[in-house]
From TrEMBL:
Residue ranges annotated for the Putative restriction endonuclease domain, each copy included: 13-178
PANTHER family the record matches: SLL0198 PROTEIN-RELATED, SLL1222 PROTEIN
Keyword Nuclease appears in the UniProt entry: yes
SUPFAM superfamilies in alphabetical order: Restriction endonuclease-like
Keyword rRNA processing among record annotations: no
Pfam hit, one: Uma2
Protein name according to UniProt: Endonuclease, Uma2 family (Restriction endonuclease fold)
Molecular function as annotated in GO: endonuclease activity
InterPro entries for the chain: Nuclease_put_TT1808, Restrct_endonuc-II-like, Uma2
Keyword annotations: Endonuclease, Hydrolase, Nuclease
């Protein structure tokens, strides 16, 4: 993970003017270069997103999107979550270019180079903007931590390992066999 021109504060308008083939996130006004994910990251992303998407479609609950989808939280914060869910009543925040506002659910698959940043900085940002549920997926340890908002920060709802069945507090009835995700 590399920060471009660390002294400068960037806006979404600045981000739109970038003319190169790199992928960036805008976090707290800092332009963060996002390296290409490893294949295991993509396999896990696809597996989780497919299960969530199938459940959401069957129940007509909303929409599931994957990275690289720009999520415009403010003029200086534009992450690209690995997986995001937006409920039916909030589908109006999805435009042709981006998502304008906080998703209901954000799923982040950790990468070795960004793990600490994802657990601290992005976590704070998602909480501040009203994400209702945040999952942190650790491919190395084969775990998923599910967080829900509490009074001043996230509360760990449940930690799951590869032998468990994940149940989402937000998406009632969704169950994911983690052995299918990690093996």
């Amino acid at each position: 993970m590399r920060t471009e021109n660390a002294d400068r504060l960037y806006t979404y308008e600045d981000y739109l003017k970038i003319d190169d083939d790199n992928q960036y996130e805008l976090i707290g006004g800092k332009l963060i270069l996002v390296p290409a994910p490893k294949t295991i990251h993509q396999e896990i992303t696809l597996a989780i997103a497919s299960v969530i998407r199938d459940f959401v479609r069957r129940s007509n609950l909303g929409k599931v999107l994957i990275a690289p989808t720009d999520v415009l939280l403010s003029e200086t914060e534009k992450p690209q979550p690995d997986i995001l869910f937006i409920s039916t009543k909030r589908l109006g925040i999805i435009t042709d270019m981006n998502v304008q506002g906080a998703p209901d659910l954000v799923v982040k698959i950790l990468s070795p180079s960004t793990g600490k940043y994802d657990k601290v900085e992005k976590s704070k940002m998602y909480y501040k903007h009203g994400v209702k549920e945040y999952w942190i997926v650790d491919p190395d340890h084969k775990t998923i931590e599910v967080f829900i908002p509490a009074e001043k920060n996230w509360n760990l709802f449940q930690s799951y390992d590869d032998e468990d069945t994940l149940a989402s507090p937000l998406l009632t009835g969704l169950e994911i066999q983690l052995s299918d995700i990690f093996n």
